[in-house]
Fold this sequence. Notes:
In chain A, 63% of the residues lie in helices and 8% in strands.
Amino acid sequence: MASLSTWGNRLHSGEKTYxxxxxxxxxxxxxxxxxxxxxxxxxxxxxxxxxxFRGGTEYIVSGVTDADAxxxxxxxxxxxxxxxxxxxxxxxxxxxxxxGTLEQSDVDALGADLADAYGxxxxxxxxxxxxxxxxxxxxxxAVQGLVVFLVLVAIVMALYFRTWRMAAAGLVALLHxxxxxxxxxxxxxxxxxxASVIGFLTILGYSLYDTVVVFDKVRxxxxxxxxxxxxxxxxxxxxxxxxxxxxxxxxxxxxxxxVSAILFIGSYLLGAGTLSDISLALFxxxxxxxxxxxxxxxxLEVALRDTEAKIKKHTADVLALRAGGESDVVREDGTVxxxxxxxxxxxxxxxxxxxxxxx
Amino acid sequence: xxxxxxxARRTLIGLAVLFVFIFGLLSTGVLxxxxxxxxxxxxxxAGGRQIILEAQAEGETIDQSDLNQAVQIIRNRVDASGTxxxxxxxxxxxxILVALPGTPDxxxxxxxxxxxxxxxRPVLQVGYSTITLPTADPAATSDPTATPEPTASTDExxxxxxxxxxxxxxxxxxxxxxxxxxxxxxxATTPSASxxxxxxxxxEATDTxxxxxxxxxxxxxxxxxxxxxxxxxxxxxxxSDPNNQTGVDPGDPNAAFVTCNQDGVTxxxxxxxxLAGDDIATATSGPEQNPQTGAAxxxxxxxxxxxxxxxNKFYATTQRLAQLTQPQNQFAIILDGVVLSDxxxxxxxxxxxxxxxxxxxxxxxxxxxxxxxxxxxxxxxxVQSEQNITATKGADELRNGLLAxxxxxxxxxxxxxxxxxxxxxxxxxxxLVAGGITYGLIALLSWGLGYRLSLAGVTGLxxxxxxxxxxxxxxxxxxxxxxxxxxxxxAAVEHGxxxxxxxxxxxxxxxxxAALVLYMLAVGGVRGFAFTLGLTTxxxxxxxxxxxxxxxxxxARTKFFGEGHKWSGLDPRQLxxxxxxxxxxxxxxPSAAAASDGPLTLAERKAAKARGAVATExxx
Lengths: 359, 620
């Protein structure tokens, strides 16, 4: 795609720049408002816990020729008049029946009744019985996993980037993604199952992965920051975000493609299940993760770095130089063109053209 | 050929060797009928029943050894019920996952949900089953063919321990039991069949006592417990049958009970239960000491501590047993309906603590102590969730999962071809190699470690397509960056690789860490997701280093890529370089659009450099 490629070139050279870092307060505001909204929805409306968290009994009858929800309701009513089952039709030939906790020994009996009612063999009825405390166990584990993961990741990031500010910014971006995803779940009312929890936890890894790539470029660009006075830290970090923009888009598309394939197959052919639960969480999380690695993580990191005395002085120096008209990076219209720091040094012998067909 | 190209070829050959190794190993397994080409499927894909049990102990904490013991007991029961390929594992601190393929019957399911019971019953009568070679159950602790003395268990002695100075509650009771330690008497009832197994499968009772009396039994050791029915049961029971060696219904605690020793040889008629698991405080094992000298004898023993109440009951029972003759002076310790140990009691044991001595090794003493300690726990198994997946639904899910994967893969292929042109072929090649290695590894793991691919695992594999492809994107974008900086393709590949490698390593490390944490803490069947995610992260790293990079190094030398063909995806003209350095100082004029930053002539560069230097000096 030539246009995207040209756009990528212009972004890379700094010819075309989006002031992502410069307008950081705008993104922070947007994110803060959205996060606040997500939290409000989360605490007022709450999540819609799946049967694994509520406890209860679930049947899935497959291979049904005439998928009618009423048949299941009647069957359950005959055996347990006090139960009000939630019946859903899956995909066209499947019926899902959810009801409260039954006696362990009665689970299979009702399964056989349902098979009778739908005229399918008993082997077509899948059942699951979930004790009332199981869900708490799962959520407890998820929270535990989250905390352990955050601590480990903070250590790894701090070690890798040798600066706590990047680790902090990465973690904030990660929390942002998580709150946002959970907020969307609460808003839409998607069912939260253990599979979605696994999806949430996977988002953590993905969100960081994305952020690491952008931060790596930021670090590259600002490695020689103090040896020059052409550009400020903000501008170089912004260049890094712009330079990785094409990659960020490509990565997101490539990561989202298989996930949306699962989501599509999972929801249209299978109905709810492990596949669609994980992929839905991933889909939302990955989309938000891409946004946060561009608009939250790097701007935040820059905001943190800008409080450093060294950076402050450097920025002031660069700006003073520009004000004095000594800098050659200011365009005629007053904007600054930020380019790569080390353009045009010798590329090494390997860059020289080869002599052809000669030993 | 340059050094880099040679290295690239070597790496590719290394990858090929690895490939051949993985699939060679797999085909060896297939040809020897040890495994199949396809990896084993977990319950949610193959159909079956999955039960998650939580071990609960009131007021006590459950440690890993208790949980392992519970797993062992459930495994014994399931094996005894004839269900094959059951998978029983611990999950987290308190959960046990039982996965049974197919449709297990209700009786098997009840067996699993039951909690284990530890009982102490007095021995009324002992007999021996004729050994049939070899015992089918590898879990049986003693192998009759290896030990010529199948009656090793009757060599065990139960004695009191001298109260240590710190022992408080029991100090005042007479400790006359102490002197009877480790007095291993060779049993008079050694069966003749021990060394030479006879083909006859009929059991022979060696005890002459036939207590067909009708009188009401007066105490648990009374032979009046042996009714004709019990006697008939005893005569009929065949202890060499593996089903009788593990996971037997523990019987009515207030009646006589016929069962086997776990060695598969000895059988018993036992009196009613005298002590139960909750009478035991704890059990430990240690080196056996001579009670007089305190010197180690070289053997091992089990120290048993009883609760206050249990100690009193124990004292009363041992007082009675000590006066009886063999075998009625024996105490059978039964876990889950099978006799673990049948020590003799020679003296009454007061004080609430006792020790069992005999032919123990360190391992067997430890095992018995663990079993006793486990039996002492008021452990109940609560069903947390139970899932029954039919085979048709599992097959449906697998088909749809694979379909989703295929669609995802095709979409990724189309997108990368669109974005990277011919370079997309490298991506596809890399994905195929990664897929092949992952498949081989999963099939091998399924064979070697019994790994089972679940639906969540399949999802992990599909999600990994995107993450794996991203490594290539990071790499290609870096190479493009280097091309934009004005490097030749070969140099760009080298330089791009250096910075991309660092990024890929860092992000893969984060991904792997996430997978690891998920795996360690996961509950339910979703552990498979973390597993495949972690596995594919490692495979991704392998493929990028051993396939994608070497291939790109070699491709950079071809005319098509090296000269930047329009469809190569690495065309410098499309990357903002109107033309490359032509040699002899000739650099084509950069386009107007890139005037301020494009390739400058040497003179322009020098001028710019000078300007920059002046500006910097001015500042400082």
